[in-house]
Amino acid sequence: MATFLVPVLIVLDQIFKLWAERTLDPVPDPFLPGLYLTYVKNTGIAFGLFQGNSELLGWLSLAVGVLILLYLGYGKSALWTRFALSLIAAGALGNAIDRIGRGYVIDYLDIGPGLWPVFNLADSLVVVGVLALLLEGLFRRRGQ
């Protein structure tokens, strides 16, 4: 699954980021109720932490993504775990491409100006992957 899912998600992430870079501006533009499209260059991580450390964060993201891919290639895990780790790897690698290649991450999804930091597909993949792992652990514990 990872051999197919991860590259597809990385390409999709990069397509959205290129589109955002060429189309959007820093002024929030209503898209759907409760969702705005806003172009942001992020040199840090979530919530604006570690601004200006894009290169270091890029190499860390790359290392995380590659280590997860290695684990997926050699480790034996449940399908759900492999799915969740694939999401995390794709998100980490998608943002690593930005950080190393551009010097910043392109963010564009905004749930309301000032309500939450602007984010992107790669960020969402990491969050959903982590939540999936947590849910798996919770359900596994209840099943014992």
Structure description:
There is one protein chain. The chain is an alpha+beta fold and 144 residues long. It has one domain (2-18, 29-134). Helix content is 62%, strand content 12%. The chain is built from four helices and three strands. The chain has helices at 2-23, 54-74, 79-101, 121-143; strands spanning 29-32, 35-42, 105-110. A hairpin with a 2-residue loop joins β1 and β2 (35-42). α1 packs parallel to α3 (79-101).
Short description:
The chain is of the alpha+beta class and 144 residues long. The protein has helices at 2-23, 54-74, 79-101, 121-143; strands at 29-32, 35-42, 105-110.
Provide the structure class. alpha+beta
What's the SSE pattern? HEEHHEH
Mean pLDDT: 90
Give the strand order of the largest sheet, numbering strands 1, 2, ... along the chain: 1-2-3
Nearest-angstrom radius of gyration? 16 Å
What is the CA-CA span between the terminal residues?
A: 27 Å
**If helices are DSSP runs of H or I spanning 4 or more residues, what is the number of helices?**
4
